Each structure stands twice: as structure tokens, then as C-alpha cells.
Amino acid sequence: MIHFVILISRQGKVRLTKWYSPYQQKERSTVIRELSGLILSRGPKLCNFVEWKGYKVVYRRYASLYFCMCIDPDDNELEILEIIHHFVEILDRYFGSVCELDLIFNFHKAYYILDEILIAGELQESSKKAVARLIAAQDSLVETAKEEAGSISNMISQAI
Amino acid sequence: MAATSSAPSLVDTLFQRSLDDLIRSLRSSSSSSVLEAAAITRALDEIRREIRSPDLDTKAVALQKLTYLASLHHLDMSWAAFHALELLPSPSLPHPRVAYLAASLSFHPSSTDLLPLATHQLRKHLAPSPANTPALVAPALHVLALASSADLACHLAPDLLPILSGQSSNPLRPKAIATALRALAVCPDAAPVLFKPLVDCLSLSSEPSAVSAAVSAFCELALAAPDPSPYLPLAPEFYRLLVDSRNNWVLIKVLKIFARLAPLERRLAVRILDPVCQLLRRSPAKSVVFECIRTVLSSLSDHDSAVRLAVDKIKEFLASDDDPNLRYLGLQALAMLGPAYLWAVDESREVVIRSLNDTDTNIRHQALCLIMGMLRESNVVEICNLLIKYAMKSDPDFANEILDAVLATCGRNVYELIVDFDWYVSLLGEMARNPHCAKGDEIERQLVDIGLRVRDARPELVRVARDLLIDPALLGNPFLCRVLSAAAWVSGEYVESSRNLLELVEALLQPRTNLLSLLVRAVYIQAVFKVVTFSFIFFIKQIQAFDTKSSADRNAAFENENDVATADKAVIFDSIDNNETFKHESLSHLLDFVETTVGPLSECDNVEIQERARNVLGLIHIIRETQYWDIVAEHELTRDKKISEIVELMEAAFSEELGPVSTNAQKRVTVPEDLILNENLSDLAEVLGDIDVTPCTSISFSLRCHHPTETKEDSAPVIEASSLLAEHRKRHGLYYLPTEKDEVESNDYPLANEPLLAVSHVDDAKDIVKLTAQSFIPRKEKPMKPRPVVIRLDEGDGDSSSGLTMVKEFKDDLLSGAIRNVLLGNESKPSSSCDMSSDRTSRRGETDASNNNELFSQPKESNALDGREHRKSSSRKSRHHTRHKEKNGSLGNEDIEETSHRHSTRSSRHQGRHKHRERGDAPPDVVSQEPVIQDFLL
């Protein structure tokens, strides 16, 4: 299974973290520090796998972002690379040629999208279309709810 | 409203910064870390105020901001757990979504104690209702999957059922499957409820995404289980997927499952061989091909044709110059091949060796691991020489990696690979001379260890130590400090193998030794002490031997005697002639040199050095004082009692050999009768303070016992404190110079193993011989030179970790036990507790229902008990009600074998029954002896 997913920028800024195994906050910081040191220092055209504390970390760089996933030693590295690519394609489709800024300002959306793809560290939905459809449905639901709430709170604030 | 600084006010609500504002302000201050920290602190203050606002919108935005800070700036947000829970019941959809996101990112199953408060809301959101849209249920499932404790999982497991076994088109179904997997992992008791619906998800009618999720779940379960046999009955379903599925993700998982199941059932292996080979040949996806290779190598390695095919694919991987990933995986796959397939590695030898030069450190590392895996007795010399030479040229990191790998592999299992210890010892010397060497600690350990264990290697060891010691260039390297310490100890301890004592002493006392750390210098001085002692003893003995002969044939006799000594002890004094007056001069020169060099050290600040320097000086003083010393030429005085006493004493001080100490030595020491194990620690402290009567003292002397004591005594439980102390002494005593000046006093102490020594001596020798003899049996070629005896004690290193694994296995056992019960079906069917499947349960007998009631009433009654107790008791209960009774609790292997067969029959029967409901009556309890897997697969 996937133990965690981390997105780090080339400068070492964390852009997204998702933990599928229980880690305490302190451990999380240490893990990120160690891994960003390990991965960011690797040059291009090297293999995408890093061994780390008995686990394997599969990473792939897209533009300025490193997508890293930590897996068990007997998991399939190539499969994880495909999952990473799958995730990036879905992000790309959702945001329309995604860039780092999209993820920075829509961090919760990035989480919701990731949640549609992975749950409990397992691949969930392998169809990009299905994910796009689900996310769109959720978005429209949330939007309508917000509109309703907006109007109500307007009314209240006016009343005050 | 009184707007205090801390209370939330309307102003906060109206002028609250949105998440975007927060992100912008953080970005604008990201240029310096101080500014950023300040911005974060300010934002956190705001959030702390806002989050207590009664307005849910304000609260939600605050929580969202906090989530952002926590997940990307590593802030602790556990304090806000309650606020997240507050937002859950809100009717506005965005609120619970924000709350669930916060919870899934920050809740921790063991440290979030508010978790039980979420139970009710989760249940409400999971219930089938039009208000519960996927947009709400999906995040709820996430929280349940990521943060649920055992209790929560047990309570909510039945609530997953409507989604699990509901409409197949439900987009939530895959999520519920993954959540169910997590629930099973933390709470094995949920198996009766959840397992059956999970199995149903594999069926043909399910949506592809549900099948994929279910396969992932079973893959995870089967990989985690210590014994995967309970999953054997599902093999037909998996086989269908293996043959039919075109989905690579599913294929990979199915292959993983079969890799685990195939070793259990030979016929299964035969059956999947063909489809796996087909995939291996045809699949365009490298990930599937690689998984096939892994499956073949790990589980189908008996089938030569398949292995051949896999090896061909591995070669393709290795040859792909443009893709480092494939090269890496190719090497990894080669490393999986067992010793039986050395030919495969051999065929790719060139690529592997070339990979040591790869630009990618990970590939180099993998190649190194592979080469280490290939090491055999026959090629160890060749390969290690090659690697160590290579390490000289490579970059520091990799050089150390190589050294590490060579040290670990050669030292494995008490040097089982090494036949020629002379070679290995000189290799250790060569490693120490590597300019990048940072493995001094391990080299030190092995040098001393080989000295203790392998008698035959000592002359070479002393030679290597001498080469290290006389090289002044090495003294400046802080990494080699430890190696030099070992070298000094070795040359002192086995001084009789030294060729040139004067040279050795000069090396030990050369001026640059002041670069060494103080403790190592102390070791050096103690080595000098031993050398001086030895040369004096040797000198006196020579003369005594000389004296015992009559003066007529004295020259010839002396030479004879000397020859015997030389042959016996392998001692060669290059610098000393047989003429004793010359020898006297040389000895006196040695003493003068030592005295002048060590003299200043007796004023040293460091107590260790000072003490030892004084010891040496004292010894020289005694030697000088003897009458013998003044009148060397007059041999009558050799009969002087005093001299022979001194010689005897000094000889005794170092004659006893140090031996390796078993890790279990402490357990073998019987607890003295006057030691009460139940005494509390303060009493113990008193006992320990009075060191003369504690067992620990004697343990420190057990160091000196050089014969491994294979006693069959009960390993008495040992008080922790005393064992810690003993451990400390044991560890440090080995590298610490033996304080032999205590020798005389030591007779007063009881030696812990003294009574055993005489008895066990002979047996031990036999044991060692037997051990080495055994290890020779499987080897193909007898080495030219017989392997020297390596003293090894018992294997008891693994004891410490066993407790931990036991606990884990116990838990896994619970799960597989529960699953076995479910799959193998019969009375205690899970679904009885759930309305959805009442039609199925209705077919079952009255008694079964009552069993179920009992089964499920048990946890309810014990709700008040703490979780662990609860789980235990209910699982015991559920086991109790299964057909194969408690026997299973402690079954031996045969039992497992047998039950698993029975299981397979039952469950597939059950599945058959399930598919053809029209059959109606449950078949009676007659179980056919043929395992049903056959029906499906053969």
C-alpha cells in the first residue's frame, strides 16, 4: 500500500501531504525533511526510486514539482509511477494545464481530487473520466450549497 | 458585545481573512523565514479566535486555514479536533466537507481522544439517505479509513454494509471497500460482518472500479497475513480475473495474490503458470511484466521454462540503456534469484559489474547488493579483492557503501563465507587504508573478534596490525582511531606472534601517537605493558632453560630448547641472537626506550593513561631491581625464588586467553541463592553498591573464560538492573584492556563458570568440531587449505525482537482466524446482524441464529470494558463457535494444512450455494474429502 503522498517544489516547499499510515506530526516533519533532502539532490535522468528506511519512495518530477509516494518494498514501483502520472493527468484536466500556483491556491481541491484516486493507500478509480465526473458533481453540489448559505448569511448580516 | 482580545467578535466574522488572503500574505512574506514565521504566528492567533466563533461559516474558514497551515507548514492542529467535530452536523454541505478534510489530515487513531465523539455523525452520514450525497459520504469514508481506532471501526463496520452490498453502480462502493479493508486491519472482529460483502464485490456483476478496489483489498490482506491459506478458497475468482481482466492495475494485484497463494498449493502453481507466462510474453505494460517476473521468481521458481522466460525479460530490462528505472528493477529482480539460479546472474555478470559504474547511486547500490548476494565460499576472495580495489577509486560515499557491504557479508554468521582468514585479515587491513574509510568501528570489531575466535589467524593478524601501527600517516586520520586501537590490542594480546618486539614498541610509542584520542592511547600503553612483560618472561625462561643444561653440552642444548620454543610458539626474535648477553643488551635497550617515552605520560591528566603509564614504569622498576638483572653472567642466581615468582606471576597475568562471549551468557549464569529476585530496586541498589557480593562481579570474570560453555542449565530470569550492568561490562570489557594486575586478587572471587569449565571443556571442543564439519558438508569443493576453527557460541541473537513479532502475529492471526471462519463458512455467518442479507440468513437453522445472537451479544455486554479486553474476549467467543473449535488456537503445521483443505471445500461449496439459491436447503454437513479447488482449476 501507499504510506504517504508528498508534493515538494524544487525549492523544498511542501505543496501537499497525505498520510495513509498513522504518523504523528513530529514524525511527519522529519519524514519530509529527510525525503526532500534525499530526492531534491538527485539529478535528472536517474531512476525514480529511492530506498528509504526499509520502504521505497517512488518520485517523479513534473515541471518544478516532485510527486513522491512511499510504498512497501514488495509493491510494484512501475505501477506507482503510473499512479503518479494518472494523478497528474487528472489534475491537468481539472485545472487546465495545471501549474504549481493552481495547487497552492486550491490546496483543498487537490486533496479532494487525490481522495478520489487513492483511498486508504489503495488505487481507487483508474478511469480519468469517472474521476472528472465525480469531482464535477461534488463541485456543483458544494457551489449550490454555498450560494444558498451565502444568501442566508447576507440576509442575517443585513438584519443585524 | 464586549470585544476582548481573545473572544471571537462580530468584527472577526465580518473582516475575516479568507484562505486566499492567508495564502497571499504567506507568499508575500516567504522571502525570509523570519517574516514567514511571523505571518504564520499572526494567522494562527486569528484562527484561534475565529474558530471559536458561533458562526459556522467563520468557523469553517478558520478551520480551512488551519488545515492549510497544518498540512503544508507542519503546524500542530490536534488542539482543533473538537472544532472540526463541531462542524460535522452542519446542514450546509461545505462545512462537514471542510471538517472531514481537516479530520482526515490531522486525526490520529491512537492520539486523538475525541474520536468516539465522531461516531454518531459518521453513522448518520453513512446511512443511505438522499441527503447523504457522495460529496458528503466520500470524505466521511476517508476519515473512517485513515483515522479510525479499533473501537470506531468495530462500531461502524455494520454501517458500511449498505454501501458495500448496495447498488453496483454506486460510486462510493470502491471507497467503502477500501475503508472496509482498513477496518479489518485495525479490528479483526469486523471480519464476520465485512468479509462476505467484500467477496461479493469480486463477482462478475460488479463495476470494474469495485472489482479493482476489492482485488486491492484482498491483495493487502493476503500479503499482510502470516498464513494466507484462508484466502485459498478465493483462488477461482482471482484466476478468472487473471485470465479475463484487461486492467493492468487489477492484473498486478492478482499476480501479487497468486505469488502468495501459489506456494501453498502445488496444483495452483501449475494452473497459473500458463496465464502468467502469456502475460510475461505479451503484455505491453512493463509494470505487469515486472510483476510477472517477480511472481515467477518468488513463487514459480520450480518451473524452469518460466524462470528462463523471466530471466530473458530481466536481460531486456538490464539492456534498456535509456531507462534507468528498468535497469534498476532488472538488478533487483536478479537479486531475487536464489542460489539455484546462479547461472542467470552469471550470464549477466558483465552488465552487473558495469552497473557499479552507473551514474545513478541507487543503481550502483542495487548492483552492489546483487554482487553481495552472489558471494560464495568459492568466489569470495576474487570478488572482494575486486570490490576493495574498486572502492579505492570510487567516490567517498560509495566507497564506504562497498566497505560496509563487504564487512557485513563477510562477517555474516560468524564469518561463514571465509575459509582463508589470513587473506581476510589482510583485506581488513587494506580496507582500513582506503582513504575514504569511515567504517573503523566495524573493522575494529572484526579485527578483535577474529583474534578471539580464530586462533590460526593470529600470526597474520599481528602482522597486519604491525603494518597499521608503524605507518605514521594513519595516526592523523580520526576515522582510523578505532582500527588502530584494535591493532594495538591485537599486537599486545598476541605478542608471542610478533617478529620484532623493539620495532613494535617503537611503533606503539612513536611521537605522533599524541594525535590519538586518550582512550586509544591508553590501549597503546597497555599493549606496551604486555610487550615488556612478554620480553622479560621470554628472556628469563631462555636463561633458565639454558641453566638447566650441564655446562658441557650447554650450547647445543640451548639451541635445541630454543628450537622447541620456536616451533611451539612460532616465536622468532629477529633482532636477538642466541647469545644471551646480546639479548640482555637488547632487552635493556627496550626497557630504556620505554622508560624514557612513557615517563612523561605518568604525569598525564587523563587517569587511564596516567595509571597505565605508571603500571609500565612500575614493571620496569621491578625488573630492574631483580638481582638477576645486575649479574647477568652469573647463572647461579637464576634459582633465586624471587625471580621465578615474578616470572610466574607475570606469566599468569596474561596467559589466560580471552574468548568471545555469547550474547546469552548472562542467562546461563545461575542466580545465587542469596539473591531474591523479587526484591525491589532500591534494595537492589544497595546490593549492587556492595560490588563484591553481586553476581555481576563474577560475570565480568566470565569474560576470561575462553571456552564457550554449552550448559543445559535453566536460563534463570535475571533482574533487569543486574543484567544491564552485566551487559555494560560485557560490552566494554571486551575492548577494555583486561586489568590483569588484578590477577592475584581475582583468585578471591568465585568464578562464575569455574565448576562448569572442567566438565564442559571436552564437549565444547567436540561441538565446535561438529559445527565446522557440518558447515563443510554442503560445499562442492574442498578448499585447498582447511578452514581454521572459528569459535562460535549459540545463535541466540534474535531473542530480543521475538516479543514484538509475536504480538503482531497474534493480531494477524486473529484476522486470518476470523476470515477463515467467514470464508469457510457455516453457522456463524456474519450477515445475520444486518438486515440487508436477511434472506440469506433465513435459510439457516435455528441453532445457527442463536449462535449468532450469542456471538454478537458478547461485544455489546462488554462495551464498558476497555478495547483490548473487548477484542480478545469476543474473538475468543467467535472462535469458540466455529466448527474447528479451539484446537486451532495452537495448531501445529499439520493441523493448518488439514483445516485449510477443509476450508477450501466448505467455502467453495458455500459460494456455489450462494450462486444457485434455488437449491434451497443448505446441504448437510457432509464434507467431501476432495478439495474443491480442483473443480475450478483442474
From TrEMBL, chain A:
GO terms for molecular function: clathrin adaptor activity. It holds the Pfam family Clat_adaptor_s. Subunit of clathrin-associated adaptor protein complex 1 that plays a role in protein sorting at the trans-Golgi network and early endosomes (TGN/EE). The AP complexes mediate the recruitment of clathrin to membranes and the recognition of sorting signals within the cytosolic tails of transmembrane cargo molecules. It is found in: Cytoplasmic vesicle, Clathrin-coated vesicle membrane; Golgi apparatus. CDD domains: AP1_sigma. It is a peripheral membrane protein. InterPro entries: AP1_sigma (IPR044733), AP_complex_ssu (IPR016635), AP_mu_sigma_su (IPR022775), Clathrin_sm-chain_CS (IPR000804), Longin-like_dom_sf (IPR011012). Residues 1-140 form the AP complex mu/sigma subunit domain. PROSITE patterns: CLAT_ADAPTOR_S (PS00989). This is AP complex subunit sigma. It comes from Musa acuminata subsp. malaccensis. SUPFAM superfamilies: SNARE-like. GO terms for cellular component: AP-1 adaptor complex; cytosol. The keyword tRNA processing does not apply.
From TrEMBL, chain B:
Residues 38-619 form the Clathrin/coatomer adaptor adaptin-like N-terminal domain. It holds the Pfam family Adaptin_N. Residues 837-847 have a biased composition (Basic and acidic residues). InterPro entries: AP3_complex_dsu, ARM-like, ARM-type_fold, Clathrin/coatomer_adapt-like_N. One of its GO terms (biological process) is Golgi to vacuole transport. It is found in: Endomembrane system; Golgi apparatus. Residues 825-938 are annotated as: Disordered. GO terms for cellular component: AP-3 adaptor complex; endosome membrane; Golgi apparatus. Residues 870-886, 902-917 have a biased composition (Basic residues). Keywords: Golgi apparatus, Membrane, Protein transport, Repeat, Transport. Residues 848-861 have a biased composition (Polar residues). It comes from the Eukaryota. Belongs to the adaptor complexes large subunit family. Part of the AP-3 complex, an adaptor-related complex which seems to be clathrin-associated. The complex is associated with the Golgi region as well as more peripheral structures. It facilitates the budding of vesicles from the Golgi membrane and may be directly involved in trafficking to the vacuole. It also function in maintaining the identity of lytic vacuoles and in regulating the transition between storage and lytic vacuoles. Adaptor protein complex 3 (AP-3) is a heterotetramer. This is AP-3 complex subunit delta. It comes from Musa acuminata subsp. malaccensis (Wild banana).
